[in-house]
């Protein structure tokens, strides 16, 4: 038997790490790419800015509910714990594995993308893309094997550098002479069917760039003061991310008209080429690498925490709860890294990312529902923080999640069918594991 008292996560993380992991786990290269696609869908400056604000408001409302959940049940693994407590072991098992897969896919993707950007800077490395990606993964595995404090330090440094890079890009855009904005339309063009479809399609992309906003909840068990630090970091981190995203979009439109931006696959590079000349692409590539290193570090830390929580409750191997002297769930880290290595070698992410978009919304929605249930069934649970304007904010978050899920089913029915099949297969597996526990 494994000594459960010995294999406990260490309370060594504070507010600065929480904010760093939220920013680091959210802001990636998506914000550098998506403005062009969204400009093509909406073709209206004011509606585009409103879309980013709407996405930010959705996340902020979600943060309000998660702040109560994470401080009420400050355990490793995040959402899975709340859903399990509210709806039972099977709901916890299914949501935990959905959440794990969602968060275990990104490390492989980010390793590959960083290697691609490195090759852009150093073309002579063109034949070594996979080797660079694998080397990067191994380097981060070794870093996190040394302990939580080193991973935390890297997260705070890289997240700070990321924010500096994005702020510098925004300032550079506004220093450019700029173009005139179109006036706010006075007709009812916002309500055209095509534009409404583009609005909801844009929201799917925008929610994708905000994904990672609840990163701090996975580390609640390791936080020195979760009751105070988690709500502070959720609100301040989300507001900072929303501000950066909205300001970047405004800055891009200050440099390029919508018609030009709509044709851009990498909006930031086209903007930088105008501001910085021929060095623009290099500058954006460097910003992208800084951004990706920060998000990679965050996602190297998140999946092992989910796997640790699942293992502790008997939903994975018992050795998944082993924690080394540095506070790292070592077996969970190695298993997650092997999964990432496998994905790097096969290099196919499209289907997996479609699946991840679905599972994120499902898990968030179930977490919001669990808050409603636990307020009724376990009203005596200690609640260091209580959701503002409860229950209305939580109900709005549930309705918004359901609307997004319906939109995803409409736009990507194949992924929905895969999720239904996985759900059907999962119960016999849960039943076998449950019998072994008894």
TrEMBL record:
Pfam families for this protein: AA_permease_2
Single GO MF descriptor: L-amino acid transmembrane transporter activity
Coiled coil (UniProt feature): none
Compartments reported by the entry: Membrane
Database matches in InterPro entries: AA/rel_permease1, AminoAcid_Transporter
Any one GO cellular component localisation term in the record: membrane
The entry's keywords: Membrane, Transmembrane, Transmembrane helix
Record's bilayer topology term: Multi-pass membrane protein
Annotated TM spans: 12-33, 45-67, 128-148, 160-179, 191-213, 234-256, 281-302, 330-349, 355-376, 388-410, 416-433
Membrane as UniProt keyword: yes
Chief location of this protein within or outside the cell: membrane
Designated name of the protein: APC family permease
